[in-house]
Write a structure and sequence with these properties.
This protein is mainly beta and 150 residues long. The relative contact order is 0.25.
């Protein structure tokens, strides 16, 4: 399980599943490479598959889904910034082990993501922040420049 693999130990910051945003309005998949995916000292970059999902919800929430081996997904999620059109204010990380029998683990976070337009060629998603006071996280992905699939 990805949550165990990460050994984050942040059960105090877990957000209830009923707080998950409804109303998906858009989902794109882009190809490229993970530049970095890590929590604290756990570097997960080598487990990335080269695919990134980008989800947009009706309430302004955006999720960047870093696809990992063994069907695991590392998601950085937050509300679209009102000050910057290409930024997201991160408020949670979602760890999904890919098994239908297990619910994803949602962990409160603080940070931000910036991104470019995937329809205009190569672009980079860069996310960074903290889980609680002690755990840093970083997640970045560079697309290969091909148009996204919807």
């Amino acid at each position: 399980m990805l949550a165990t693999m990460l050994a984050v130990g942040c059960s105090a910051w877990v957000i209830r599943a009923e707080e998950t945003p409804p109303n998906l309005v858009g989902l794109l998949t882009v190809r490229g490479q993970c530049l970095k995916v890590s929590i604290a000292r756990d570097d997960l970059t080598g487990r990335c598959t080269g695919e990134l999902g980008m989800a947009v919800y009706a309430d302004g929430r955006t999720g960047f889904h870093f696809m990992m081996r063994s069907r695991h997904i590392f998601t950085v999620s937050g509300i679209h910034s009102k000050q910057q059109s290409n930024a997201v204010q991160v408020d949670r990380i979602v760890l999904n082990d890919g098994l239908e029998t297990n619910k994803p683990e949602v962990i409160a976070a603080e940070g931000s993501c910036t991104y470019g337009d995937p329809y205009r060629g190569r672009m980079t998603v860069r996310c960074a922040g903290k889980l609680g006071r002690l755990q840093d996280f970083v997640a970045s992905f560079e697309t290969d420049g091909t148009p996204p699939t919807e």
